[in-house]
Design goal:
Blueprint lengths: L6 H10 L14 E22 L7 H4 L9 E25 L47 E13 L4 E13 L2 H24 L9 H22 L1 E13 L9 E8 L3 E3 L7 E9 L16 E15 L4 E19 L3
Antiparallel strand pairs: 1-2, 1-5, 3-4, 6-7, 6-8, 8-9, 9-10
Length: 341
């Protein structure tokens, strides 16, 4: 008779299942080690620019003779890259070794045969703060209002009928945008004239030493404020991200997308297709065979790797950015060290 499992039995079976991935344990009393592999760490620095166009941008060429960007824009550009090779254990290349013969070897904390050129580090990441909206409220000192003459008519009764009589009246209206731009340009040129007068001494007041420097600095600050109404201003935000590239042994094309840069999001992951890719090309040199034939090893051996010296290039797909020579263990060759009889 076939038994149908009851609900308590099913719950007990589910409780006995492992919660995470099953990891094979080494047999008790054995010693294992891993072969080294090279990870290429890139410390990428970029600068993100939030540009806010000035309200008088379209009048910049007319009144100041300069070209100005007309639209708000956010861009991100690469600022610097630091490339460092690190050595770590290759989890796909592990070997057992006789515990009695480990005196020949020194193992690191990662299970590697200890080497003097190992390098281990921590990863850190910094994200952009939220961008702020443009604010021109404190820029400019001229009024936004002007007085404009207009003619109104009112009816006046005489003996026969009503007559229309013109009445002059001033009304407060908003200045046209171009008029405000022209007044701002006049202030800029006036500030420049004042600066020239102070420099050549063509003023009623006498400026010297620190007083002259303070006056020129204040004029320069005022001019910068007014110029921003035409040419806009930028907020620069730096970003620093660390990313790792692990070359894959046996892969014919050793070109990897290291990271991407997006104008909207800055430095993004390699699989984020919204950004422009930066490629890491690894070109291993050929490893020559051993000259001559050594004595055959008897007994146990320890497997080790001889790294391939690779030319590593970082490009944006067209333009080279960084190039270096790096030993990459997993792209090299494996050899054997006899441990005795």
């Amino acid at each position: 008779m076939k038994r149908i499992p009851t609900l308590p039995m099913l719950l007990l079976a589910c409780a006995l299942l492992p919660a995470g991935p099953i990891r094979a344990q080494d047999p008790y009393g054995t010693v294992s080690y891993a072969l080294p592999q090279t990870t290429i760490r890139l410390e990428v620095e970029a600068v993100r620019e939030h540009f806010f166009a000035g309200p008088y941008a379209r009048f910049a060429e007319k009144y100041l003779g300069v070209q100005a960007r007309q639209q708000d824009q956010t861009t991100c550009a690469l600022d610097g890259v630091k490339m460092t090779p690190h050595i770590e254990a290759d989890p796909s290349a592990r070997f057992f070794i006789d515990p009695e013969k480990t005196a020949y070897l020194s193992l690191s904390s990662q299970g590697l045969i200890a080497v003097a050129d190992g390098s281990f580090g921590e990863t850190s990441q910094w994200r952009f703060p939220s961008p702020r909206a443009a604010d021109f409220s404190e820029r400019g000192i001229s009024s936004n209002l002007t007085s404009e003459a207009t003619t109104l008519f009112r009816g006046v009764q005489n003996d026969a009928a009503y007559n229309r009589v013109a009445v002059q009246q001033n009304m407060v209206v908003e200045k046209p945008l171009e008029q405000r731009a022209r007044e701002a340009a006049d202030v800029i040129f006036e500030l420049r004239r004042k600066r020239m007068q102070i420099v050549i001494g063509d003023t009623d007041a006498t400026y010297s030493g620190e007083a002259m420097g303070a006056a020129l600095a204040e004029i320069a600050a005022l001019e910068k404020e007014y110029m921003s109404l035409f040419v806009g201003y930028s907020e620069l935000q730096p970003q620093k991200v660390t990313c790792d590239v692990v070359p894959v042994k046996g892969q014919k094309n050793q070109t990897y997308v290291a990271f991407r840069i997006s104008d909207a999001d800055g430095i993004v992951a390699a699989d984020n297709l919204s950004g422009k890719p930066y490629l890491l090309e690894i070109l291993p040199q050929d490893i020559a065979p051993v000259a001559g034939k050594g004595r055959s090893a008897k007994g146990d051996v320890a497997v080790y790797r001889i790294p391939a010296v690779c030319t590593v290039k970082l490009t944006d797909g067209v333009r080279p950015i960084l190039q270096s020579r790096i030993p990459v263990y997993q792209l090299g060759t494996e050899s054997y060290f006899p441990l005795g009889k």
